[in-house]
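During the reporting period the student researcher (J.K.) took over the structure-prediction task from the postdoctoral fellow and processed the backlog of single-chain submissions. One of the processed entries is reproduced below for the supervisory committee.
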Amino acid sequence: MERRELLKLIATATGTALFAGNVLAYTDVPAVPLSDTLFNEKDVALMNEMGEVIIPQTDTPGAKAANVGATMAVLITDCYTPLLQKTFLDGIKKISSLSQSRFNKQFVQLTKQEREALFNDLDVEAKAANLANGVYQGVETGKPSQWEPGTDEPTPHYFTLLKQLTLYCFFTSQVGATKVLRYVAIPGRYDGAFPYKKGDKAWAT
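J.K. obtained the following structure tokens:
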């Protein structure tokens, strides 16, 4: 899957373009200790659980298998602006608070049905909030300044950031690229008429 196609997929799924996408798309994520990020092991485990609601395991691996939480920790620390960092961190706390107030449980204790119900409501809330606040709704245009928020521009809903990061971290992971998408690590010629039948996996390369 090409970078532009991935960004369009994320934009379609979340209703807005990937924030900080111009940075993330060109950043190799190094193996860094969590002590160098804004997160700890408990945070990463929680983000993995949240990511699994967005991309659950079916006949293919889910977000937890790709350890999306660890990648999120690095990207948020290294690539997000302070404003987006605060939005995301406050949002994770908000989700935990909603879990307690709505179900009287911690998020990790929620059933699959409870997690899905909570996230479905947050998805509706996020899309409405982004629209009301004038958050840019289009896909990538090639001009990052049009969709990379600054401190004086509207900030996306925290659930939008969580959903975008989950999709991005999963489909750029080894698990996502090789177990869900199709990946062939060899150079090849362009074939504009390559045979495809409905249901085939998309290509990661």
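The committee noted the following: Confidence is low (pLDDT under 50) at residues 139-147.
J.K. will present the remaining backlog at the next meeting.
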